[in-house]
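User: Could you check the structure of this?
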Amino acid sequence: MSAPQRFICNLSLTLPRRSSSFSTFKSRTFLFLPFTHPYWTLPPSSTLLTSSSPMPLNPRSGGNRRQIWKEKPTTEGKLSAMGDTVATDAETVTNRLSGMHIAESSGQTEVQHANKGAVQGSMAIWKPKSYGTASGVNAAEVENTPLVGADVASTKSSSAGLSKLFRGNQLENFTVDNSTYSLAQIRATFYPKFENEKSDQEIRSRMIEMVSKGLATLEVSLKHSGSLFMYAGHEGGAYAKNSFGNIYTAVGVFVLGRMFREAWGTEASKKQAEFNNFLENNRMSLSMELVTAVLGDHGQRPQEDYVVVTAVTELGNGKPKFYSTPEIIAFCRKWRLPTNHVWLFSTRKSASSFFAAYDALCEEGTATPVCKALDEIADISVPGSKDHVKAQGEILEGLVARLVSHESSNHIEKILKEFPPPLADGVALDFGPSLREICAANRSDEKQQIKALLESVGSSFCPDYSDWFGTDAADFHSRNADRSVLSKFLQTHPADYSTKKLQEMVRLMREKRYPAAFKCYHNFHKADVISSDNLFYKMVIHVHSDSAFRRYQKEMRLKPGLWPLYRGFFVDINLFKPNKEKAAEISKNNSINASDGTDSEIDDFADEDANLMVKLKFLTYKLRTFLIRNGLPILFKEGPGAYKAYYLRQMKIWGTSPRKQRELSKMLDEWAVYIRRKCGNKQLSSSTYLSEAEPFLEQYAKRSSQNQALIGSAGSLVRTEDFLAIVEGGQDEEGDLVAEQELAPPGPNISVKDTVPKDEGLIVFFPGIPGCAKSALCKELLNAQGGLGDDRPVHSLMGDLIKGKYWQKVAEERRKKPNSIMLADKNAPNEEVWRLIEDMCHRTRASAVPVVPESEGTDSNPFSLDALAVFMFRVLQRVNHPGNLDKASPNAGYVLLMFYHLYDGKSRKEFEGELIDRFGSLVKMPLLKSDRNPLPEAVQCILEEGIDLYKLHSKRHGRVYEGILLKGMDKMGETITGYSLWK
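Assistant: Sure, the predicted structure tokens are below.
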């Protein structure tokens, strides 16, 4: 028996049946032939050759920042709309700096001056309870004076410190040695993103079980549709999800300040100042849902601009402490801040009734009937201070259900008695222009809008504009700090327990290569205490993918004491060199903390049962956001066929009822024709899509009561075009324009099915990387006797030999021979190609089979470095390749890394899960033995260096980096091919 025949006998997989309905499936089995290449075995690391040292960066391309930090006068030029000019993809070359030792400076340090600055900085900022006050230092002397005045250009911050900072790169001259310490303080954060590993149905059952046993209470809160906004006082700062100092935070500060005015009336200024001092003195931050019509469309344009408090956090000198819902209500009623609508279900009957009510309402429910139903079945109902129907509208995004303490019912009843609903003394007063009027009157540029908003808030609530505009010594654009802040932070001694835990968290994320960025900025609030040995920065931890939260939760269960990974994560960092006495005191206190055994604590957020949570969204909201808004790029770029495949797949994932699928398909097909005819080739803006969608939905709803139920509510459209805030590039700071992660199911679930009907075609395609052996596999299949076990013709189109658009050619061949088996011999790395293949299958009644190389993957890529090394080795061994990608190619390494990064951001589980969800099947080609030796260290190092260089090149998009990059690629090829193991 030949090798192909043996593989035919051994392998099977599932395939979907393609019929007139793209989402209809029928069972069958498909026998497939894998590649017969032998497994690669890597040799022991003892065979390593010496790797050359990392190449220095070109001084003109980022290695030396002196040109950036020159002192210059403040200008009135346009500011970056998002305010966050640091690239948000994963860190590049500095990923390797954490393993390098930064040598001690040979010059003498001015110890007394540096120590004084360091002690003053730590006393003014951190107020650590564990090691008290340094002798001879008066805390009052180092307190920062708030900036006052409405004119940004004349802010009265002392610019002496910043002048010193921006005359030269002090960070570059800051050496890390055995006497260097750091203090890290969380400034603002939101709850950790808890990713359930079980299905929603399993979570529901577990919730009901725990409630029925008296172990917990089910708490349900209303989800207002807006953006995350965090506030830590005028010193602590205002933050959006992953940024600060931009239009999003300016709008948030204005709306929060206006909430105080409406609540307190003539006492507002006094209460605003008291509130800021309270947050600063008690080291607290607030998280809010910012609901506004000026920052782009979500599910419905709100009637009012407002905030709803969703979390209150005590930051302290340790791990953040989140208030319970009763504590949040008490806090908000004390300060007259808006609260959310909350329901409690403390019995099996009421908890079961809640889920039954949601199931009955999820496809047609709007705010009024949903709130009414929950009020009737809940054991306790606490109405929010902002009525969703009056403030936002009838379109309800969803509900959030979670388990809380069994004592919550008693606690909340006590709070409601002690803190009655607060008065609103300022509702009838005139406080000047509204948010929408200010934005409308300042349409010249984003900077002008921000300035007008902050001036209108008033100095009692916002006395300092430096986060938005910089200072006299350094403008907004100069706030970005060198990436080496992070590397130096990780090499310093932690000055307290919280700094130690934050270093532990960051090291783990970098070691595991989580899809996250660590963006560092200068802290303008600390300009007066900056010195050569006392530096201050702000760090933003930006998690790019939900997969990072899932993996981090697993690490928390394996490593008790590991702090949670929060959403919206902002940290103040102080790098300093204390005197000997202070250093000894810090070491002593750290030793005491270590002996307390706090590292062994299991974090509450690592307990899956204690943190069961499920988000329950309504179809009327998902129709607007996911099916209409998120489908716009697909509709305009790929056409109605791809759009139909997209929305059918979404509804299938959601488990939408067949009746609603039919109704929505009819409506969405009509929407596609309508909007393409109206807009032509110009895509409708996602930030203002409701201007077109709502009138269409209103007219559609008027045709029948069935249509009205499908739409939910239409007709009350707020016109935003005249007052929409200016946001560069139409970006959404909250990431809400990104398709929901529910597109990636928890994991593949393959079952054995019947054979493929002979009247259907088949497309075999390869989501892989050059060197994955797709052409060798196609050749084996073409030469196999008997084809694939039936009489259907087998054809192969090699991408390197096709001139013009490859997938268009495949589509033409599919139309000519719809019953044939097409081997698409070309790498298909992205979702755009996958949608084209889906569309071909739908149009020609075919099935598609993705074939991928077996690989463990990394935390952010479905292919491991071992697999990448094999692919690169194969390419560097090829000669006379039709696509000219072989050993003679001058940029083979660059091309391989380019393909590798097309998959960046997806774990192996997400990658396979999405392919199986789209195509119902997956074939894995054998590649590496599971019991192989580790990848040689020199090979791993050169691959990591190449990845870093590639990312740096991608960030800069400058030709000055091309020489560095290609030189690095040459070294990569020499290292990989230099090992006898590859020969």
